[in-house]
Amino acid sequence: MGVLAVEPEGNEPVSAILAGPYGGNLDLAEITEGTSLFLPVFKAGARVWSGDANAAQSDGVVDQTGIESAMEVLHVQYLVHKGVELAGPTVDTPTHWIVMAFADSLDIALPECVRTAIAWLKRAWRARPPRRLRPVQYGDLVQGHSMGRSDRLGLHLHPTEDDPRDDPEGRAWRASSAAHRRLDAPGGMTLTPSDSLAILQLVARADACATKRDADGYAALFTNDAVMDGDMGTVEGQTALRDTVARVWAAEPAGTLHLTLNAVIDESGAQPAVDSVMLMVGASPSPTVLGSARVRQTVRHTPGGWRISARSIDTHG
């Protein structure tokens, strides 16, 4: 995806061709499936916009070469991290962190990008700057190349060789903190993007099992010692949970859909939890809301992946 942005500061129109602290036409080939892009928010609601899908492209499309395309399906997960100081676009790929700087010339963009990276590393990783940073002008390495004018420059940090957590100071920090690749030390991520996606997919699979009346598949999404609390009372363990939901579903009209809305991951506790609204919708003769409830599901990471360890259903909230 070439363009990902929030609405810039001010009220003046900004060309979609440009990029800046708000994001914009970044044309970064690393922004693809499994990558997280963090952007500072300048206006209420952020007003995220995207476009310029590419099947293939070079970084920055410096030679104006890219295979323009269209996306039939685009899944984007939006997470708000409050109280995070962020100067501009910051990208988390499976192998690198990438920060960016924007200026009218490479002479200005390069030192600004280095300063931005060092400041962010000190704040986010609580460690001294890495031994080696690799500055990259979109299209080629800076060292040994004459590149002329450039308005975009990225700084790549390779975690295997440069991660401060792999030196003695970094190991001491890592041992004292359970957070992994935190965006910001005071109030950043404690879950990786892949973990967040897996948790939300877990909740979606539970809905699918409920709609299909698959009690065995539903119970398999829970830990062995899971607890579920609601109008049916409190049940513990996978077997009791399976038998209980089977009785509840049998009393529902045939074809009832179970839908989860407004799912938000709460990372403030010892274990992550998902707060959401559940709707039961009758499918015939016309869609009708049969009931709703507020649901909180605590999840735990197990050898088999993320599982639900507790589920609380409040039909009166």
Overview of the molecule:
- This protein is an alpha+beta fold.
- The protein folds into 2 domains: 3-175, no CATH class; 193-314, Nuclear Transport Factor 2, Chain: A (Roll), CATH 3.10.450.50.
- It is built from 6 helices and 18 strands.
- Strands 4-8-9-12-10-11 form a 6-stranded antiparallel sheet.
- A hairpin with a 2-residue loop joins strand 13 (222-230) and strand 14.
- It is elongated, with a radius of gyration of 23 Å.
- It starts with a strand and ends with a strand.
- The model is unreliable at 134-152 and 156-189 (pLDDT under 50).
Biggest pleated sheet: 6 strands, antiparallel
**Percentage of residues in DSSP E strands:** 25-35%
Tell me the domain tally. 2
Q: Order of strands across the biggest sheet?
A: 4-8-9-12-10-11
Order of helices and strands: EEEEEEEEEHEEEHHHHEEHEEEE
Structural features:
Nuclear Transport Factor 2, Chain: A; 6-stranded antiparallel sheet; alpha+beta; 32% strand; elongated; 317 residues; 22% helix; 6-stranded mixed sheet
Summarize the structure.
By secondary structure, the protein is an alpha+beta fold. It has helices spanning 106-125, 159-162, 168-175, 193-212, 215-219, 238-250, and strands at 3-5, 19-20, 23-25, 36-38, 49-51, 54-57, 66-68, 90-92, 97-102, 134-137, 140-141, 152-157, 222-230, 233-236, 257-266, 273-282, 288-302, 305-314.
